[in-house]
Each structure stands twice: as structure tokens, then as C-alpha cells.
Design a protein that fits this description.
Distance between the termini: 29 Å
Strand order of the largest sheet: 8-9-7-10-11-12-13
Number of helices: 11
GO molecular function, one term: serine-type endopeptidase activity
Strand content: 15-25%
Order of helices and strands: HEHEEEEHEHEEHEHEHEEEEEHHEEHHEE
CATH superfamily of the largest domain: Peptidase S8/S53 domain
Structural class: alpha/beta
CATH architecture of the largest domain: 3-Layer(aba) Sandwich
Family: Belongs to the peptidase S8 family.
Radius of gyration: 32 Å
GO cellular component, one term: Golgi membrane
Protein name: Proprotein convertase subtilisin/kexin type 7
CATH topology of the largest domain: Rossmann fold
GO biological process, one term: otolith development
Number of domains: 3
């Protein structure tokens, strides 16, 4: 990650914090220097609502019209109201008295005097106003079960999004497309936020991505993901989406044979309408990156399409997401899962390419993700059983939508940098290391747990990083053998930031990866490849598979 930007970000936070600190301390350290103002002098007795009048005075050539009006109405002048010139607060001290011609008279109503006074243009008796703080109240019946949005049982173990919503940041103006088995866009929780302009059915080659019922009734995946992102609130149905002000589209591509052509079209379909592509699936092979590369260059009006991909659910089979051509692409945001305790669940895959994690299901006793469900078959339209990294990636896509509402001009690289800067460590038992830029990273959790509040506030002040510049080394031929004892071969290639910046105008190095490795061995497959950096112990680049 780019070291030169780290001090800038910290400096912004430091200056902001310092400003808050000064605002807090100034009144406390300066009690002997009261603020001078003409309004509401503290020398007058206090009076509450029902005992005071707000009055607008038309001044004549004499400057004492406000004092005269107050005295004649049996009131005391508390001074000008704030910065409103000609507006005064008159307070009742003695009930039912008035001063006329040097004589105090009883049974005088201040309102009667003010109503007929020649210099009073307007008056109003103060009353207690009914006001309440903005608070979120959703009538969606399953919202209380959406622990990933607001966790009352386990404080702090949620995505920290409710404060973002209270600032009216809900993903407005952003479109997230779910690339999956279709989206039931007539669903009660989806139809108001559905974007037909961003949708398409690549399996049937028509504009309608409605999922087709099959024998096993398992074409509900895309609808569940769409509900996580943009389920409509306060419709007395099911649940709430993390970016419920955003638009959601659907690309139906997984309900049939998937070819390279369809896959490439899916990642670039309507890329001037769709800002974020949420993909809760991965390829069986190494994937094809040409469409991803084109998306980050030309998509989203040149700022780059945001590709959010799930890391995979093969952890119990020792699968590694480095084998996933989408997960290990520099053009994607690879999202893993943690359970409600912030720990890696049994199904989650490890890999060096993991960028961050967010919440999903855990073991048998853990709570799952509540979201919309297709109603074509079961008519329920809601589920409490969405699981796996398939449920984590849409939450991340929704949080990115919140970021893009406050800063639509963030580039795809900006979003990745902000994720790395703001993610928090969530599991002390994970194998955390510190990379050369000083960032904590683990193969279980990437840079850490996503936090919507931190993401959005960082996006507001973010200084864009430079455009991508890449360097590819020439082919390195070693021509050496791996001995039987020890059965380890260490080969070193030194590439420093100094060399890069000198010859290729690099200002920083974000990522480094091995493009192709060709190994042959007469007797046994290679068990592991390790790719160490200068500050980290060697970590497996790919694990437990033959090369």
C-alpha cells in the first residue's frame, strides 16, 4: 500500500481531532473572560416559556423604544434575540402589572399592551416546542434480527452503519449490480430500488434478469444478495438494505452454461450505469482479467468500475482463494467473512489477496444474515438463512455505495486504499503481520474488518491516489534443482521502490505478484510456494496443491 499517503491521512485526522479538542477546552480554560453580547443579559431574572414574549420593535428616532414597550407591558427587557436585529425577549417578573404615566396598574395583560403598542410590529408568547432527535425507526419486522447492521447483543460487532444513515447517507445516486442467477425485481423489498437500465439476462439474452424457478428452487442467490444491498425500509416487510437509498440491478448469468464470452460481457454490461459489481461467486479456473481491466479503465465515467468479489467457501476443504482468478486480481476488492464474534468461520478461505472481511454466518449456533428471499416458490420473500462469503460481499458492496454517495469521484484505486486504511483488526488469534508500508494484514482477514462509519468519513476527505502504473520484470530462468535434503529451494529477486521510481516513475508500490511460475519435478509435486517481504515472515502464496 502507498506509504506516502499515510502521513497525509493521519494529518487530516490529527488536525480534525485537534480542532475538536480546542473547541472543548476553550470555555473551560477561560472562565474569567465571559463572552460579550447584547443578547439575553445574565443580569436579568430568568423566565421560562409562558412567562416571556418575543417582540419585534419598530424603532423611532429614540433608542429606548424596546425598553419603553417592555416597561409599559409590565415586562423586563432581556435583550436582543441572537443576531435578529429589532427582536427582543421580554420577560414577566410580576404578574398582571403595567406601568402607565408613572403609575403601576394591576390587571394589565402584557398581550393587550403589546397588541396596541405603536412600536410593536409583532409579538408572540413563547411556548415549549416539541422536538425530537433524529432517530432511526424501521417498521420492517425482521430488522431487529439484522444483527450485522445493529448488534444489540454483542456491542460493536456490526458494520457501524446506523450513524451513517442518520446523516442521510444511504447510497443515493449509486447503482449496484448483482452478477448472479438473477434478481426478483418485483419483490416487495426490491422493486422500488430496482434499476432496469442496469440489468440484463445473459442466459436468455433479454433485458429481464428475473430468476427462473428450477427443480431444486435454488435460484434465489442473487435476490438475497440484492436485498442485503438495497432492501427498501419502512414498508412493513422483511428487512433493510445496508445502502437502502441506492439502486440495485441484476445481471443473470449463472443459470446456464457460463462461457468466457458471457463472463466478459457480464463484467462490463451497462458500466456507465452500474457503479459497483457485486459477485458472490468465483471461477473454477484462474479467471480472465481483460474484462476487469477494461472496467477499471473505462467504467463509471472513467473513475473505474468497482468489482467486489467473495473470497470463497472452501475453507473446510483447505481451498485457498489465491487460486481464484478474480479474488487475486488487482482490479477487485476481495471480501472474506467473519462470524458474529469477529472470528474466521470454518468455511472461509485464507489467501494473501484478501483485502478485508465483513460479517456473515458462523457455526451451527451462530446467527445468519437476514435478507430478502425470492417469493416465486415459497411466497415468503424473506430468509434468516443467508450464509457464507456470498453474504459478506454484498454487505461490502453496499458500504462502497455509501462511500460513493459522499464522493462520487473516488477512483477504483481510491476505494481500495480507503478500505486498507480504515479496516480494523478483529481477531487477535489471527496470523497478523506488518507489511513494508506499516499496515497490518493477515491471510484470514486481509487488512481487517470493514466499518461503514470509518469508510464514509475517510471518503469525505480522501486525496486521490495516482493512476495505476505497472512494471513487469523479464522472465527469470533459474535452471536449478530442488535437493532431497533439505527439500527447500530459496531464490531471491530484489526489486526496490528506489529502482522502480528511478526507472518507471513509481511513487509507491501497492501490490506485487508473481505472474507465472513454471516448475517441473521428477518425483513429487511442489507442496508450497512462499513469497516473503522484507518485514514479514514468508507466507504461502499458494498452499497444498501440486504445481
Amino acid at each position: 500500500m502507498a506509504a506516502p499517503y499515510f502521513p497525509t491521512f493521519l494529518l487530516l485526522i490529527f488536525v480534525s481531532s485537534l480542532g475538536l479538542l480546542l473547541l472543548t477546552l476553550l470555555p473551560a480554560v477561560s472562565p474569567s473572560h465571559p463572552l460579550t453580547t447584547s443578547s439575553l443579559s445574565s443580569s436579568w431574572p430568568s423566565c421560562g416559556p409562558g412567562q416571556s414574549w418575543a417582540v419585534r420593535i419598530h424603532h423611532s428616532h429614540e433608542e429606548e423604544d424596546d425598553e419603553r414597550a417592555a416597561k409599559q407591558a409590565g415586562l423586563q427587557n432581556q435583550g436582543q434575540i441572537g443576531e435578529l436585529e429589532g427582536h427582543y425577549l421580554l420577560c414577566s417578573v410580576k404578574a398582571d402589572t403595567g406601568y402607565f404615566g408613572g403609575i403601576w396598574k394591576r390587571s394589565v395583560q402584557p398581550a393587550d399592551v403589546l397588541a396596541t403598542h405603536p412600536h410593536v410590529l409583532w409579538f408572540s408568547k413563547e411556548r415549549v416546542l416539541s422536538r425530537s432527535k433524529r432517530a432511526l425507526a424501521f417498521n420492517d419486522p425482521n430488522y431487529p434480527k439484522q444483527w450485522h447492521l445493529h448488534n444489540k447483543m454483542n456491542k460493536g460487532m456490526d458494520i457501524n452503519v446506523t450513524g451513517v444513515w442518520e446523516h442521510n447517507i444511504t447510497g443515493q445516486g449509486v447503482t449496484v449490480v448483482v452478477v448472479d442467477d438473477g434478481v426478483e425485481h418485483t419483490h416487495q423489498d426490491i422493486k422500488l430500488n430496482y434499476s432496469p437500465e442496469g440489468s440484463y439476462d445473459l442466459n436468455s439474452n433479454d433485458p429481464d434478469p428475473m430468476p427462473h424457478p428450477d427443480f431444486h428452487s435454488d435460484n434465489h442467490h442473487g435476490t438475497r444478495c440484492a436485498g442485503e444491498i438495497a432492501a427498501v425500509p419502512n414498508n412493513s416487510f422483511c428487512a433493510v438494505g445496508v445502502a437502502y437509498g441506492s439502486k440495485v440491478a441484476g445481471i443473470r448469468v449463472l443459470d446456464g452454461p457460463l462461457t468466457d464470452r458471457l463472463e466478459a460481457i457480464a463484467f462490463n454490461k451497462h458500466y456507465q450505469i452500474n457503479d459497483i459489481y457485486s459477485c458472490s461467486w468465483g471461477p473454477d479456473d484462474d479467471g480472465h482479467t481483460a474484462a476487469l481491466q477494461h472496467g477499471v479503465i473505462a467504467g463509471r465515467r472513467g473513475f473505474g468500475s468497482i468489482f467486489v468479489v467473495a473470497s470463497g467457501n472452501g475453507g473446510q476443504y483447505d481451498d485457498n482463494c489465491n487460486y481464484d482468478g478474480y479474488a487475486n486480481s488487482i482490479y477487485t476488492i476481495t471480501i472474506g467473512a467473519v462470524d458474529e464474534e469477529g472470528r474466521k468461520p470454518f468455511y472461509a478461505e485464507d489467501c494473501a489477496s484478501l483485502l478485508a472481511v465483513t460479517f456473515s454466518s458462523g457455526g451451527a449456533k451462530s446467527r445468519n444474515i437476514v435478507t430478502s428471499d425470492w417469493s416465486i416458490r415459497n411466497r415468503k420473500g424473506c430468509t434468516e438463512g443467508h450464509t457464507g462469503t456470498s453474504a459478506a460481499a454484498p454487505l461490502a458492496a453496499g458500504m462502497v455505495a455509501l462511500m460513493l454517495q459522499v464522493r462520487p469521484c473516488l477512483t477504483w484505486r481510491d476505494v481500495q486504499h480507503i478500505v486498507a486504511f480504515t479496516a480494523t483488526q478483529c481477531d487477535s488469534t489471527a496470523d497478523w503481520g506488518v507489511n513494508d508500508a506499516g499496515f497490518h494484514h493477515s491471510h484470514q482477514h486481509g487488512f481487517g474488518l470493514l466499518n461503514a462509519w470509518r469508510l464514509v468519513n475517510a471518503a469525505k476527505v480522501w486525496e486521490s491516489v495516482p493512476f495505476l502504473v505497472s512494471y513487469q520484470s523479464p522472465v527469470i530462468n533459474e535452471g536449478v534443482s530442488i535437493s532431497a535434503h533439505p527439500d527447500v529451494l530459496v531464490r531471491t529477486w530484489n526489486g526496490t521502490v528506489f529502482i522502480f521510481s528511478l526507472s518507471h516513475h513509481f511513487s509507491s508500490v501497492d501490490s506485487c505478484f508473481v505472474h507465472t511460475v513454471s516448475l517441473t519435478h521428477a518425483h513429487a509435486p511442489i507442496k508450497q510456494l512462499h513469497f516473503p517481504t522484507s518485514r514479514q515472515k514468508a507466507q504461502p502464496l499458494k498452499a497444498e496443491k501440486g504445481c
